[in-house]
Amino acid sequence: MDRKTYITIFILIILPIISILYKLNVADLSLLPVAVDDTVNLQVVISPKENVAISEVVFPIPKQFVQAKVLKSNTKTDDLDFRVQKKQYGHLGIWEGEDWNSPIGYYAKIKMLPYENKDPEPEIPTPPKKTVTKEPYYLSLKQFSTDELSLAKKLYEQIHPYDKDNVASAKQIYYFISEEIINSYKDISLSETIRLNSGNAYTQALLFSLLCRMRGIQARTVAGFDLSKQTEKDNKNKITFWNEVRFHGKWYFVSTYKSIFASSVTGYLPLWKSVEEKRNLGEDPVTFRYTAYITKSNVNRYNFKEYSEEIASSNSFLRYYSLYSLPTPLQNLFRLVILIPIGALVLSIARNMIGIPTFGIFTPILLAMFFYETNLWFGIGFFLLMIALGFFERFALDKFYLLAVPRLSILLTITVLTLILFSIINEEISIFNQMSVTLFPIVITTIFVERFSIMIIEEGVMHTMVTLLGTLVIALISYMIFFFGSLQILFFTHPELLLIVIAIQILLGLYKGYRISELFRFREIFKS
């Protein structure tokens, strides 16, 4: 390489580094948007116990709460009648029928959000207005038995939280339960918890709700899943319980069992927000068993909104030239387009360094975009089918001695008809999930099949099949790069890194050595 080439490569590499250092140290921007890992897959399997005949199964199913946004859900009914009982504080799934002998349940994809309210200000209770006659639901004591109320009243007098404001009173109740009530895993009643000073998460949560309501503080017992309690081996989880207490019109998270009061917490998935009796949830260990599986959803999500606001609030000139200043549709487009040079770099290495043959220069990258925009298995299946159809169409039309443009038009028509047929069949029997139809199949396959047919005639079947295999390999590698979320966000946030890609391409363009495939091809010559 001459001196000019060295200088050019050095400049192309050093400029992105200087730009990123400027963003971090001068503009005071973050390197990347904050990663968001808050989507989970919840699967609940309910199975009957042996020699138990029941006609109805009741179990809580996900509802849209502030902390849980249901993105997708479906149920398994096994020929049972299914209905949903919807209430303000939760949804119950009800399965009804006879001869229930196989598992039922549901699946849901849920976006989890944290409990954000924390550190409530002191709240002095205000006397109710004379016009208000109905007692607030979360102050009601009707759900508790006479024995529970009698024992709780004695405990309440012992704690005496009535000489403080509501927040301080709730804290006093919380500290008493979390410090004086011993954590237990045993199935125990609320009365026994008060008598024995020992209780599980459920009875401790009930006791906190009861004592707060006696003080005039709105509180409720919540049932749901604590992701920190699930086993790493099989992702199993069990329903647990905590509280929500209301101050200044906001609900705050409380768990006496885990010693948390009015803090910002994550990893809690609520199902039912008014639990006074376990049987209301359908939990009945005598008749059936349930198993809940919770796994992190395989998504790459980042907080783009927060990063956009960070750039907009910066005093740097970059706020006018960042890709984050573009409209959302354009941002989504560029997140894919910006990785095309990376795919071209892979193609250059494969062709110039390894010696993998491909159809054309950019055909593998276009195929990768085709797979990305539709569905990988649909893309490969449709692509191979069109190659087969195009191959036979070519030889069938050769008998008519047609010109090139009419022949390509016929091939284009066959491609459209095949795509229509694929879509109709997939709609009926759902062979390919999340399949979307774009113009890429029509454009790419029409041009590719004609090129494929010509190559078979000119260079033979074996060489054409090797080239086809090489094209698919590079397309699959590029497809995986398009799904590499961290790489996509890195280049989208710092598009100047593409200058480094150009520098590498210059080095590849100057390479005049042997390809790896040639070392095997001419190994006999090298030996001699």
UniProtKB/TrEMBL annotation:
The chain crosses the membrane at residues 6-24, 333-354, 374-392, 404-425, 431-449, 461-485, 497-514. It comes from the Bacteria. Coiled coil: none annotated. Keywords: Membrane, Transmembrane, Transmembrane helix. The keyword Transmembrane helix applies. Residues 159-254 form the Transglutaminase-like domain. InterPro entries: 7TM_transglut, Papain-like_cys_pep_sf, Transglutaminase-like. Residues 309-525 form the 7 transmembrane helices usually fused to an inactive transglutaminase domain. This is Transglutaminase. It comes from Leptospira levettii.
